[in-house]
Amino acid sequence: MRRGFFWTALLFAGLFALAVRAQVPGFSGVGREMAQPVVVPPDHATAIFAGGCFWCMERDFESLAGVVEVESGYTAGHTAHPDYESVSDGRTGHAEAVRVIYDPARVSYAQLLDFFWRHIDPTAKDRQFCDTGTPYRSGIYWQNDEERNLATRSRDALLASGRFREIHTELAPASSFWIAEGFHQDYYKKNPLRYGYYRFACGRDARVAELWGESQAQRGRE
Known about the structure:
Number of strands: 8
Helix content: 40-55%
Mean pLDDT: 87
């Protein structure tokens, strides 16, 4: 009986998490205004990652020393000017992604890669946690040969370690990064209660802790 109650509660929590994601202004015809891209400061660099829900990826990366800003957006698709509704429906081929603006004097691209891996589930194909479908695939989108080599080596090192039998995270050259609607930028700051319950109900931190250990899971929440 207790076990049945647990799975029932987990199911309802997951459904609530999906409802939070679905009931955003983009689907109701308001709040579709795209945000303005952040101007990258001199001597700073950018990196593009996809790890499922961009609200969560934005929150995690903004906790990392050396990261000055994170933007939510869409990348790796086949249409121009995608919006949340069309991306979520899978019509554009895009993934929800983040553009990380960072200071290379304080944090390296290799360190960003290490942080990224430890905040996703690389074993999941075309999904992350409770969000399913190609818009929620994980990916590393390199912008030059150095990034490509570092990303490839980091993936290969994970496989060689024996921690994972397979990794489904996409490694591909960067394409256009389309900034998402203003509603999505800093969502975790503007809607802390709704965001917090979504993240908990989606099981993100629980799965990360299972894969990487509790200390790693905590890194994105401190």
